[in-house]
Structure formats: C-alpha cells, structure tokens
Structure to design on (353 residues):
C-alpha cells in the first residue's frame, strides 16, 4: 500500500497550505527557500542512520512532508535489499523526493568502488539529493550536478566546511555537539556563527527533538533541521522496542561518548552494558590507531566490527548488548509516534491556522 501523499498549495500572501491537514504555515525566509528548492513541505531531513534507516522509515519521512535520506549499508546489509530494488521499494511507498547518504572516505578501494556504483544507480533511479560524509565530495558533486541534483556535506567546523564547498558542495549539514553518532564539538549556535559567512544553506544536525528546539534552530537562521534520534522513536522505524524505550527513558545526561564502537567518539545511551564495557578503546587499539602504518588496519577492523555489532544491537529485543546510538535530543522525546504525527508536532509553532 502506498503511503499517503502530501502536497502543498501557496496562498496569495505567500504562506503555504498542507493539503493533508489544510493547515497554513509560515516559515522563516531561509527555510522557505529550502523547501521550495527541494520540493518538500517541511524543512526537515530524516537523517541517514546506520543501522536504523529501514526503507519504510525513509519513505514515511518523505511522505509526511520531509525528506527521507536512505543509508545504503542499512538498506542492503541490515534490511537485505538489493540496492536498486531497495530504491524502487521506497518508491512504491511514496512518490515524494528522497535522498541518499554517500560515505566517501577512501580507506577501502572496494568500498569506494561500491559507493561509486550506488551513486550512479541512485541517479539513474531519479534521486537528486545527496548527503556526503568523510571525504572530499568533488567527484560526487560532478556527477550529481550533471544530473541537476544537489550535494550537502557533513561538517563539524569551518575547516571541513571550506573543503566541502571548495569541492562542489551546495550546502552544509552542520553536525553539533548534541548529535547522535559521530557528534561535533560546537553548540548549534556556535557552529552556525562560524559558518554563516560562507553564504550557503546550513542544516542543523543535532539536538532537535521537539517543536521548541525546531523553532530555535530555524529562528537562528538555519535553513532546515536534520533529525535522527527522533525518528528512531517512530512507529515506522524497525529498531527494537527496547531501543526505542531507552530513548524515551533517557535524558541528555544519559548520552555519553564511546570510543569502543568505531575508534572515535560516538554518542550512545549510557546503559548498564556501556558502563560495564567502558568508554575508551583498548591499549592495543590506541597503539594501532596512533601509527601511520597500522591505523588503516585498525580502522578497517573497527568498521567491520561496528557494522555487525550495531546491526545486532539495534534489532535485538533482548537488549543484552545494547550499543544504542542516540543524541541529546532524547530530552524532548516522550512518545513513539508515526512520522506524520512527529512532523506535525515539530512544525506546530509555525502554524498560523
């Protein structure tokens, strides 16, 4: 069954109407430009998450008026779809725009070749919005721009932002210190202040879990917000019920940084298992990561281990090995809702009728 399609219509005053709810919204100028450019209803991106971005979740975010961004390894390894068929499955659920996440670091030639093939397939299947991470996006931007698409690059500070823009990025996903997964070090205000002079669309990533934080981010000047943790606690996400409940039970003080998953700090919920395991990498891992000849091998070991470990923990209803990634937006998450309800609640402060 196809997910309900949302559409919008502009009023003579420049406000816009969600035809699904017949509510009228008014957005800040930068956010309005963003939704117009992407052809979506709300300035909300469903962040790509390994391992939580199941195709039904990606489709539901887009169908509810945002932009769902798929994570290729989640699609193929965690949920078992051949890549092209996985995209077509999402298209069966919604005809609204979707995006793709491209991790473009070069530690593995085989992985880079696979990512290159996935990008070509995504373009062939009509995807025109890409979020790049961990590398220079020049080769991605070249292909995407040739097809009329957009590339937004993950950054945590000005240095990486300039590299991304110099290599073809059209906008920036600004990952702050409240984000889940690999978080940045700056607050969302400090990160915005450091990047605003670049004069490109900035997307706030981290700490957005309710209407208050959504409004604060857009009022600062961000063009949109990227949410991950909030959508894990949705009815369409296939993460385990114990994982979702842990998000509901957690406060911001329960989010800690663990080096034991990927070798660099990752934001996770501080469960009993995390406390027993510790937060720091072992002595051997730290030694290998410090050496020019050995760090590649250690990163590969961590990558392979984390892919299996995070998949298992996200789907395991027993919760025995609970590496549960989450950001500090848990403070504003109190219920498991459909993506449609989540979106409506996030946008309620912009509703004028």
């Amino acid at each position: 069954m196809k997910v309900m399609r949302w559409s919008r219509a502009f009023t003579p005053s420049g406000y816009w109407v969600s035809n699904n709810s017949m509510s009228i919204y008014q957005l800040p100028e930068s956010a309005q430009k963003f939704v117009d450019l992407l052809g979506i209803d709300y300035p909300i991106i469903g962040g790509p998450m390994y391992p939580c971005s199941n195709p039904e979740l990606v489709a539901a975010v887009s169908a509810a008026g945002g932009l769902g961004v798929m994570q290729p390894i989640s699609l193929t390894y965690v949920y078992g779809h051949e890549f092209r068929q996985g995209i077509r499955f999402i298209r069966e659920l919604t005809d609204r725009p979707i995006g793709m996440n491209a991790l473009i670091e070069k530690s593995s030639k085989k992985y880079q070749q696979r990512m290159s093939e996935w990008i070509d397939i995504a373009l062939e299947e009509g995807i025109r919005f890409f979020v790049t991470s961990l590398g220079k996006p020049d080769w991605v931007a070249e292909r995407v721009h040739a097809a009329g698409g957009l590339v937004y690059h993950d950054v945590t500070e000005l240095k990486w932002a300039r590299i991304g823009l110099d290599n073809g990025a059209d906008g920036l996903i600004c990952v702050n210190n409240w984000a889940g997964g690999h978080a940045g070090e700056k607050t969302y205000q400090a990160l915005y202040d450091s990047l605003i002079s670049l004069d490109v669309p900035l997307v706030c990533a981290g700490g957005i879990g309710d209407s208050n934080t959504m409004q604060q981010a857009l009022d600062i000047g961000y063009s949109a917000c990227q949410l991950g943790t909030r959508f894990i606690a949705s009815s369409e996400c296939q993460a385990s019920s114990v994982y979702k409940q842990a998000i509901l039970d957690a406060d911001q003080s329960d989010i800690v940084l663990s080096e034991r998953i990927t070798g660099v700090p990752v934001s996770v919920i501080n469960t009993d298992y995390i406390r027993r395991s510790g937060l720091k990498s072992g002595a051997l891992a730290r030694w290998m990561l410090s050496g020019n000849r050995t760090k590649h091998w250690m990163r590969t070991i961590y990558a392979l281990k984390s892919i299996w470990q995070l998949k298992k923990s996200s789907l395991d209803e027993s919760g025995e090995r609970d590496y549960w990634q989450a950001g500090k937006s848990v403070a504003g998450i109190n219920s498991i809702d459909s993506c449609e309800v989540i979106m409506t609640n996030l946008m309620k402060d912009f509703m004028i009728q």
Remarks:
- The chain is about 40% helix and 15% strand.
- The mean pLDDT is 86.
- The radius of gyration is 19 Å.
- Residues 9 and 155 are 34 Å apart (CA to CA).
